[in-house]
């Protein structure tokens, strides 16, 4: 089904410049598109998606971002969890 399409979109060293330049919402998996929709409906400007916001194949980025995770989630206005996609 559509929920399973495009499910492996991540940021890697190779895709970093592409991701930071902007990724069209149509290129995002349905689960993330729905989360973006909810975020906008709540009047929020930002959304954190681990697979896109952390460079997946960069150990130093993972370590640096992992140190921030407690703060990221503690300061979040809302946390959306996809338990099935």
TrEMBL record:
Protein known as: Heterokaryon incompatibility domain-containing protein
Domain Heterokaryon incompatibility: start-end pairs: 12-84
PANTHER family: DOMAIN PROTEIN, PUTATIVE-RELATED, HETEROKARYON INCOMPATIBILITY DOMAIN-CONTAINING PROTEIN
Organism, as annotated: Lasiosphaeris hirsuta
InterPro entries named in the record: HET (IPR010730)
Domain of life: Eukaryota
